[in-house]
Amino acid sequence: MSVERVEVIAFDYGGVIAEFISPEITQQMSHVVGAPHGRFVHALWEHRGGYDSGEHDAAEYWRLVIHDAVDQPPADIDGIIDRLLILDATGWIRVRPQIVGWMQELKAAGYRLMLISNMAVATFDMALEPAAWMKHMDALVVSGRVGANKPDRRIFDEAVSQAGVAPERILFLDDLPHNVDGARAAGLSAVHFTDPARLAMSIGHEYPGIPVSALWV
Q: Residue 9 phi/psi, 5° resolution?
């Protein structure tokens, strides 16, 4: 059981707030490119780290993906990139209603909320910025803006700076164990997320003062 008073709850996005991009969407994307689905998905993730960190802008990233996914690049590559951007953003907006409901519960209980996500600026602008649940966020730490992906310590140091509290007073939730470990190495409190019900049990055990009733809905 934690003895520290948590003041800020920090959420990863993909895998926590939202479901991952679905095979149905990546199938549509591969069709737009004219690539075999498996080859396209490999290229999509092969270069994603550089896109999320800001090493590549949107045009550079999608050109790299297309180059690796097909033997002969399509003629209207700019138009295809525009369609891929829209499909990509669409693929990242399937939020978990229990998590959004929990955000509301946490805000009502006086907690501040933060996003700490590996995400390209273009994805954030298209998929997250217009989202209604974003009004609950008090601070945003996006890797494309920081120039570093989790679990790089720089992104967690930026989170601590924005929060303005001691690191251990930030409770970070992520579905990837190495990101949880990175957060803890930077001094943050952290819980590994698998699903809302297990999260409710973990927090109820380790942080019994934090309300979790919305996670059981």
A: -105, 125
